Protein: Lipoprotein signal peptidase
Organism: Moraxella macacae 0408225
Amino acid sequence: MLNHTPNLSDKQNATQLLRANGIKTAVVWYALAVLVIIFDQSSKIYFENRFDLYESVSVIDPVLNWTLAYNYGAAFSFLADQGGWQKWFFAGLASLVSLGIAYYLTKIPKHAKTLALGLGLVLGGAVGNLIDRISYGYVIDFIHVHYADVWDYPIFNIADIGVCVGVVLILFDSVFLESKRLNLVDS
């Protein structure tokens, strides 16, 4: 492989690619988060108003039901039975994470669109569940993936999907794309 010495235009291109989002570009990712929040909250309101607690309707038998459930804990009902203090702990944690992501979205390179997309989805999901936690003291869940009576995945919601897909995109960026950005800095 030939040793490539970057010329001025290479450095200028790298500088352009690595320029931080700033607030103007971050607004696009904030808008994505707002869309996740709207979709999440409207779906929760729908199920809350049309279903009784633990009522279940088969959507795709035997793998998908709509089942209204309340989660007083975190993921997989972690700490759900702890008497109420966890509501404020998880609300505080979600608030700090959301503020950190909102700030970080202004600092990442404009070129890091996969990372920004992941962060926007996580932000929307975190705020969607935060709204529930503060409003009700629990998170409203309704998507029930299972296999007949043999296997059940914990019931979840749209905000959870945003968080999970967002984390996958952030990890993908970290593993496959961040090194390319770092190579731009080194060249």
